[in-house]
Specification:
Length: about 290
Amino acid sequence: MAKIIVRVPASSANLGPGMDSLGLAFKLYYTVIVEEKTTEWKVNHALGDDVPTDENNLIVQSILKTNPDIHPHQLTVISDVPIAHGLGSSTTAVVAGIKIANSLGDLNLSTDEQIRIGSEIEGHPENVAAAILGNLIVSTYDGKDAVASAIDAGELSALMYIRPDGISEVESRAKLPKTLNYQDAVLSSSRANMFVTLMSQGKIHDALPLVEGDKMHEPFRKAIVPELDVIREKAHSMDIYGTYLSGAGPTVGTLGKKSDLVQLRLELQQMDLNGSLRILDVDTEGATVRGE
């Protein structure tokens, strides 16, 4: 059997007011090589001792969730996506598993079916849809059905502040309230709606300020990511708008033109922030499978 190579892009979720709905794929990749059949699942990686190397690995769990009859194989993972940093690291493993099961099992799953399975595993659709479709995605999941659509965002770039320590999604979600103020919910919903509309019309400059001012999750997570306000304030001083908390954090993203983000990065590098600053382009292709 020829080796199967699955490549999945990193993704950023929420984009401010688009809680569990908006996602953006980046040219930062998680690659899985499917090698020979084995008697038991074996996952080779250099991701640390906390990531299982057997059937408990999230890739394998996602393969078996998609098709429990898939025979064990040896898998090798090569990843540039930091774990537990709000860049969809768990999603990359989930999507890789779905793609592998689809290929090995000759399932011929549609894109919609793959997004539904991934949403069921993750509990929300935006990272999964962005990783599968690429670009900027709008999505919804009601616990049964997932619907997603992509908007071309190829001209967009992002400056990502990536802190060395991670935050688990479970820990971050524990910061969220059980209920929201009605007016805050309406405001966040309307801002997300206008952001999507303007992006679909190619009015990026008008759309990006709407990423800010979220009421859904950022106010409750800011305490664990104090750099959010620092970066946003510096960006505003340079007339750059579009800074947000990526996913559950602790990564902070700022969207915009690459030339502007290069200047912002230079300014932030003078501030001795405890993290790295990477400019990422938008992935417009989504997850790919080669060698079938």
